[in-house]
Amino acid sequence: PRWKSNKSHISNVFPPSLSTGAGGWSPLTSDQYQWLEVDLGERTKLTAVATQGRYGSSDWLTSYLLMFSDTGHNWQQYRQEDSIGAFPGNSNADSVVQYKLQQPVIARFLRLFPLDWNPIGRIGLRLEAYGCPHTSDVVSLDGSSSLVYRLSPGLRRTSKEVVSLNLKTLRNSGTLLHAEGWGGLSLSLELERGKLLLLLRQGGTSSSEPRRLASLGSLLDDQHWHRVVLERQSAHLNLTVDKHTETVQIPAEFSHWDIEQVGLDSENPVISTRDFHGCLENLLYNDLNLIEQAKRNDHQGNVTFSCAEPVTIAVTFPGPQSFLQVPGPTVSTLGGLSVGFQFRTWNKVGLLLTFDLLQQGGVAWLYLSEARVHISNSFPSPGSALNDGQWHSVDLNSRYGRFTITVDKKEGGVSSPSFPVTVGRQLFFGGKNNSENCSNPFDIFQGCMRLLTVDNQPVDLIMVQQRLLGNYSHLQIDMCGITDRCSPSHCEHGGRCSQSWTVFHCNCSDSVCYTQGISVYEQSCEAYKHNGNTSGHYYIDVDGSGPIKPQLVYCNMTEENTWMVIQHNNSELTRVRPSPGVNQHLLYFDYSSEEEHLLAVISQSEHCEQELSYHCRKSRLLNTPEGSPFSWWLGGPGPGHLQTYWGGAQPDSQQCACGLQGDCVDPQHYCNCDADRTEWYYSGLLTHMGSLPVRSLVLGDIQRPGSEATYRVGPLRCHGDKNLWNAAFFDKETSYLHFPTFHGELSADITFLFKTTSSSGVFLENLGIKDFIRIELSSSTQVVFSFDVGNGPLEVHVESSVPLNDNRWHRVRAERNVKEALLQLDELPAATQEAPADGHFHLQLNSQLFIGTASRQKGFRGCIRSLQLNGVTLDLEERAKITPGVRPGCPGHCSSYGSLCLNQGHCVERASGFHCDCGLSAYAGVFCHTGIHTHTHTPTHTKKNEVHCVDSALPSSIYSDTTLRGENVSLSFRTNQSPALLLYVSSHYREYLALLINEYDKLEVRYKLDNNREAEVLTSSTRSLANGQLHTVAIQRVTNSVSVQIDQNAKEDFNLTSDGEFNTVKSLVLGRVHDSDDLDPDLAKLASLGFIGCLSAVHFNSINPLKAALLHPDTSPIIIAGPLVQSSCGSSASANPYTAENTHHLSGTSEDLNTFIHIHCLAGVIAVVIFVIVTGLAITARFLYRRKETYVNRDVKGVKERDSPDFPFNNQTDSQNVSSENPKEYFI
Q1: How far is CA 447 from CA 316, 352, 444, 484, 1005, in A?
Q2: Is the CATH number of domain 2-133 3.40.605.10?
Q3: Where is the composition biased (Polar residues) (predicted)?
């Protein structure tokens, strides 16, 4: 090889070895502008380089860059992992450091640039390159030439077809290759704005629009070689550009398509108006060398079989200190300026050109702002979005006192100074020398420039590089170092990638994607429930950070199970009647979720079901003379599989539910419909998850006279989340689970929940030779995410203000990608750590993944659940079943989620999550947050439509002499009536409790606990209670002490003079009292009027009368007269945060779905009377008291008494009890 250097001294250059004589390369000046160039004489496939210091000296390099070129110009920097440019050098003058290139390079010229060297020596080097000669066939096309190869019939069809080539061009558009076949179908590879497109065309007419199948690559017009492979295999097309591949499904029309000819450039002007201009190398079709074939025939126009490359010198401005200074116009006259250049950049702003205005002593600036070109403070020139990475031309001319700017051949941007334009002697591109004492008011330019002209004469940049012309600083001359960080895009889930010169960004504003790679949506309705959300529409991201896009579904949380409901295009009951000439009805169902989302939901759910109702009259399903069914349906993955069983039966049974149970109306058939009778029959619910969802339905026997049928395919309903509750308990610090190596080379997204009582421990780790990844609890308040991808260890910390070893569930989200690392704990702000701008980014691991730790780090003791790596859930439970020291599952969810149960609701443990038992609460709903309300209108004197609750079912023998020594009464009301009776409780001994609003709009509590004495009246001081606003009343009595609280006012305390015993309670009445013989005359008059207004959340000790009357009328000792309708009279959104049943914390929208009960009686006499059996109360009180003792003995953590601890009934109603079984419920 031949050696060439910049200002160097070469003394007997030896290759790296233990040489015995002096030798090596050492430039005269040791600075960053030196380089050593090697001409290998021909294009060579280089696989490795080795360096050594200069023999017998203190001169060696510690780091360097490598550049390659085919022509000695237009250099390309070699980058490891597409990121790292620097190679490690030597630590002394004698040892040899060899570096094997990850991707071999084919080039003739090699250039080495020193970056750092021994600080006590100089630049010194011995260099050796390893490789072998590269042979190839090359063709050069000038845009008007073509090369066509027509295949012989024997070569037309193979199981695998591959077209491969290398391309090099300066043009960003043009048809590269096309393959034509039978029927006018063709595939073509076309360059468009530097990207390679795979297009499908049907027919050769101008009206046929191409269909884009794939787009790959970027900046392919950089005049460097790029590898392209197009492969058809099976039902897929694989397009590869350089190191990146995109796979697409072959369209149906191509399934039997044969290639008839392959061409370079198109002979059909309709197909292409712009042909390829550049060089192609090693064009192969199924290992057939088409260039070699073309040398003999089948080429037209100016085709040469060598690569004719124009020499174009570019210059790169990489940073803030970069500038290029060249001489200005040779003659300064009134119109003496003409400057032209081309540039490409990703930045919207940057200073392009600066020159002095001698006449005025000022400076003119040509700059980018908002991706448009401006001069000084004039209007912008034509052209926009000039930060697209494409080459754009700029021409600046001054004529007769006017500046004219032309951008991409479009003139505009005229500026008319009020003085003659006289330009200084120097022009500065991209910045200005700091020694000029002139501040730059604009952002720096980062990008490339080429084809610089002054006075229509080209600027010789090679002379500038040799310091023979002008001046420069921090430039890369004879190369364009632009990099497309968005190709391929690292943005997930449809995020749009944008970039500047140094970084890229993901824009999720117009797509459902991620913030910093972490999903903002939960993976199931179950997860939304455990965040405190209630029924509504939510986006479900079923695989977290995986590739499946989030979908909007409905979450029904009104039942004990949380249902995910996925709708389709027709879930209504539909009638089918005979149609002339139609023997079968075919029906398709399109679901609101995409296919992969549907299958993932079914896979991770514990149970799924779908209603398939078929109502038939003389419309048979299964039996025919030929033995094949009349009707069937398709269900399962993809288009579905044929299913001949119906609701309630087993797959492949060809039966309905009655056939399985043996109770069909005709024993000779397995479906009631097959009895062929005129009565209506029904068949119902599908629960086999492998057959879901229903894709299509075929109905056959409906064409006969008298045949009728209706069908309904309901929405897909699933509950449970196997991923969310997949957990393992590590009972020792030495316990661990192991899984295969985690492959998160470019992106590692990790999420899990943990709970522990330990102050530290490693959650997971995976090791490599040097690289590693680890997440650990470093202290009781800190979680650390640490990793090393070859740049040295990096750590991201999150500090919590509360202890994390509180045995409650905490969520950890960690991500590491090519841009940054991120760690989030619970709802705390995420901590981030930026990745090095020029460093390794491939995470290379080779050991097993350990949950817990197998290294010397302290292991984890506690529970981990819902562990997901890049959207894939690890099955901790299955692995724990066969691993000593680890147990599957992890109970104890109420300690974390019990606070979601409101209004005296009890948290009940379940194997997968929890359930709020509202049996002892006056409220209903998933969190016992939905109030039960009744609204009464103006009463009349008719008894016809009463709502009357009577217990007549229990025998009189249980009416014993149990005595109440206290009550806990609460309710809410809204009324404009005064006086008004709110609540009345009577006794068999003519004793009573009455709660009323008196004529002064104040609350009165009347106790008559001795039938020989007058009632005692306790009057609250709170006024204006009949103002139509919602008020809440709470009354507590312990023997003769009574406390009353209204709304948020202070409690008022009263004392009774009686003995404080309420004997044998008889009934509880809401509204008008008919049996008023035991009442005082004034109270009897008031009781006969009834109540006009709204009552809600009525609670008497453990009794919830409204809830019993309205939600459980059939199982409660209640008689209701009058219609019941829904009402929202008791809602108070300002007071109750759960009144909006659909709370979308993420989307910021809510929808009121709360359900309230309205008792509306047209005749106006409205009462809810509940006869309370005294013995029943005694049993209830004793049962609940024992439960309290049980809870106290168990010492359950986190259980709080909301009210005074000395109130004897508080234990059964006002505490957040944690229970492992369902408490019994009494409606008395």
Answers
A1: 6, 10, 10, 12, 84
A2: no
A3: 1209-1221
For the beta carbon of residue 97, count every other beta carbon within 10 angstroms.
17
Closest by Cα among 808, 792, 979 to 892? 808
Q: With left for phi above 0 and alpha for psi between -120 and 50, is residue 347 left, alpha or beta?
A: beta
Give the C-alpha separation, 324 to 997, whole Å.
Answer: 90
Q: How many CB atoms lie within 10 A of CB 332?
A: 16
> C-alpha distances in angstroms, 1081 versus 1007, 1077, 1078?
15, 9, 9
* pLDDT tens readout for residues 235-293: 788 999 998 999 988 777 676 677 777 777 544 444 445 778 889 999 998 888 888 88
For 412, other C-beta atoms within 10 Å of its C-beta total: 14
Instruction: Indicate the fold that domain 330-477 takes in CATH.
Output: Jelly Rolls (2.60.120)
**What is this structure's pTM?**
0.71
- DSSP designation for 709: E
Per-position DSSP letters for 503-563, written without gaps between them = -EEEE-TTSS--BTTB-SS-SSHHHHHTTT--SEEEEE-TTTTSSSPPEEEEEE-SSSS-E
Architecture of domain 932-947+963-1126: Sandwich (2.60)
Are 815 and 822 spatial neighbours (Cβ–Cβ below 8 Å)? yes
CB–CB of 278/171 below 8 Å?
Answer: yes
The pair of structure tokens assigned to 321 is 């200190």
Residues 6+ apart with CB under 8 A from 1081: none
CA 1147 to chain centre: 13
Which tokens in the block code for residue 819? 């841009």
Residues 8, 123: Cα–Cα separation, whole Å: 10
Task: Spell out the CATH class of 573-714.
Answer: mainly beta
Rounded Cα gap, residues 977 and 1028, in angstroms: 9
Q: How many CB atoms lie within 10 A of CB 31?
A: 9
DSSP for 322-389? -EEEEE--SS--TT-EEEEEEEE-S-S-EEEEEEEETTTTEEEEEEEETTEEEETTSPPPS---TTSS
Query: Could you give the CA distance from residue 815 to residue 823 in angstroms, rounded to a whole number?
Result: 7
By residue count, the chain amounts to 1228
Q: pLDDT tens-digit profile of 1135-1187?
A: 333 333 333 333 332 222 222 233 332 223 333 444 333 334 444 444 444 44
- The owner of tokens 């061009």 is 169
Burial of 567 (0-12, 13-18, 19+ CB in 10 A): middle
CATH fold of 728-891: Jelly Rolls (2.60.120)
H helical segments located in 1147-1221: 1174-1194, 1210-1213
| The residue type at 390 | Q
Nearest Cα to 65, choosing from 117, 125, 112? Answer: 112
To 5 degrees, how large is the angle CA 1165–CA 986–CA 1106?
55
Task: Note whether 573-714 and 932-947+963-1126 share their fold.
Answer: yes
Phi, psi of 839 (to 5 degrees): -150, 180
Rounded to whole angstroms, the Cα distance separating 818 from 812 reads: 20
Q: Which fold has domain 138-151+159-296?
A: Jelly Rolls (2.60.120)
Token pair for 542: 């079923």
User: What's the CA angle centered on 86, arms 85 and 90, to 5 degrees?
Assistant: 160
User: What digits encode the pLDDT tens for the residues 879-933?
Assistant: 999 999 899 998 888 888 888 898 888 888 887 788 888 887 888 888 888 877 6
Whole-angstrom Cα distance, residue 1094 to residue 1166? 12
- Containing 1108, the helix (H) or strand (E) segment is helix 1105-1111
Q: In whole angstroms, how far apart are CA 711 and each of 283, 462, 641, 1105? A: 59, 81, 20, 41
Rg, Å, the chain Cα set: 42
> Measured at the alpha carbon of residue 866, what is the angle toward residues 864 and 870, in degrees to the nearest 5?
115
Helix (H) or strand (E) holding 1227: none
Sign (positive or negative) of CA dihedral 81, 82, 88, 89: positive
